[in-house]
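User: Sequence recovery, please. Input:
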C-alpha cells in the first residue's frame, strides 16, 4: 500500500546531511514551508545551499535557518525582503555566498532539472554582470546566455491538500515554485494544510502527481506563519 504520510517533523526532515542542497518554495511568505524549515533547525544540518525565490521573510522559516548561519550559499532572485533582509545583511559582511538569478531564469533552471533538460539559452542577463563568464551564442540574430539546471538533494514545498499517495493541490499564488521544485529534488517533502482520503481530490485539480512526492506531513500553522 502506497502511503507517503509521515506523522512527525523528525521523519519529514530525516536524512538531510551537512552540505546538502535544498530547494524551498515560497513567494515571500506565500507557499513557504516554514515549519519544515524550523524542523531542519532542530535536525541540525549545516553548510547547506538553499535555492529559493527570495530566501525567506522576517525571522522564521528559511530566513531563520539562514540567520543561524546554517546556510553557506543562497541561490535566489530577491535577497531583499518585505520585513528583514537576512541574506543581504550576511552577504554584506562576507558570511554567506550569494548567487542572484533572474526570476524567470530561476524558474526555468528548476523546471529544466525536473524535465531532464541539460541546459537552455535565454536572452535574460546577456550583456550584464549576471551574464559574465557564461557561454553565449547568437540565434536568429539575437544574443543568448547558456544556463544550466538546478538540482537539489531535498525539495521542501507547501501545498493545500494531499492524499496518501502524495497527489497535491495548491492555494492560488501559494503554488509558486512548488510544482517544479517537487520534480527537481531527489527527495520531496511537503507541508500540507489537509490530508484527504483517496479519491477526494478531483484529478483535474491535482497539480503535482504523487510520483514526484516522497513525504507528506499535515501541520497546523500558527497565525503569524500562515499564508
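Assistant: Recovered sequence (227 residues):
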Amino acid at each position: 500500500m502506497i502511503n507517503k504520510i509521515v506523522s512527525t517533523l523528525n521523519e519529514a526532515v530525516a536524512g538531510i546531511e551537512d552540505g546538502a542542497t535544498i530547494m524551498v518554495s515560497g513567494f515571500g511568505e506565500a507557499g513557504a514551508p516554514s515549519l519544515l524549515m524550523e524542523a531542519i533547525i532542530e535536525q541540525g544540518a549545516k553548510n547547506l545551499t538553499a535555492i529559493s525565490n527570495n530566501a525567506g521573510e522576517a525571522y522564521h522559516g528559511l530566513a531563520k535557518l539562514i540567520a543561524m548561519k546554517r546556510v553557506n550559499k543562497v541561490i535566489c532572485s530577491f535577497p531583499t525582503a518585505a520585513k528583514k533582509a537576512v541574506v543581504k545583511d550576511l552577504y554584506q559582511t562576507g558570511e554567506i555566498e550569494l548567487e542572484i538569478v533572474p526570476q524567470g531564469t530561476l524558474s526555468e533552471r528548476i523546471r529544466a532539472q525536473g524535465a531532464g533538460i541539460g541546459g537552455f539559452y535565454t536572452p535574460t542577463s546577456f550583456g550584464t554582470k549576471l551574464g559574465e563568464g557564461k557561454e553565449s551564442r547568437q540565434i536568429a540574430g539575437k544574443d543568448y546566455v547558456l544556463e544550466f539546471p538546478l538540482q537539489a538533494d531535498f525539495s521542501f514545498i507547501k501545498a493545500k491538500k494531499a492524499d496518501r499517495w502524495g497527489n497535491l493541490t495548491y492555494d492560488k499564488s501559494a503554488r509558486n515554485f512548488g510544482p517544479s521544485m517537487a520534480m527537481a529534488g531527489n527527495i520531496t517533502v511537503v507541508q500540507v494544510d489537509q490530508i484527504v482520503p483517496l479519491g477526494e481530490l478531483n484529478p483535474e485539480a491535482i497539480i503535482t502527481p504523487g510520483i514526484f512526492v516522497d513525504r507528506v506531513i499535515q501541520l497546523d500553522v500558527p497565525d503569524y506563519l500562515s499564508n
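The chain has a mean pLDDT of 93.
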